[in-house]
Amino acid sequence: MKKIAIGCGIFLVVGLGLICLMFYILSLPKLKDSSDQKHFSEIVNKTLTTKKRTLILVHPGILKNENYTNHLEDGTSYGMDSHLEVNAAIPIGSKVIIDKVVLYTGRVSGTTSAYLFGKVYPKDTQKEYTFEYTWGYYHSLYEDKPYWTFELAFWQDAPLNKKYFIAVP
Prior knowledge:
Layout: H1 2-26, E1 30-33, E2 47-49, E3 54-58, E4 70-73, E5 86-90, E6 95-105, E7 112-121, E8 129-134, E9 137-139, E10 147-150, E11 160-164
Parallel strand pairs: 4-8
Antiparallel strand pairs: 1-6, 2-6, 3-4, 3-5, 6-7, 7-8, 9-10, 10-11
């Protein structure tokens, strides 16, 4: 009887451990490099020029990629008057290169965001700043076929008025 109780106890502990491990693995954030997907492939590794004033901010949260330590703000995220620490003000006409685009699905919320990682070269300082920038909205609620839309970004003259069907992780 004692051996059965010990066996059941070990089975219970191992079973609970496996269940906890399963939930941990399932709740990890999911990443997908989408640099080759249409519309992203049209901007990755191309030299873009800023069309409006932007700021390079010290990233206030958890970095999605440790090689890109700043946040590029054009008024669509934290805001131009967010009182976050500013590393540089990027004038209109500065050169930007987007290195890659990663779709990031959060571990708890399950929402997906597109993160653009790149470098900017302000024309007045010629110093390089690495940054991350979020762009686009994933419309998935109440949609039979979820899609992406993209608002006016800092390098565009007009927003994209099309729906993009890009698979998420």
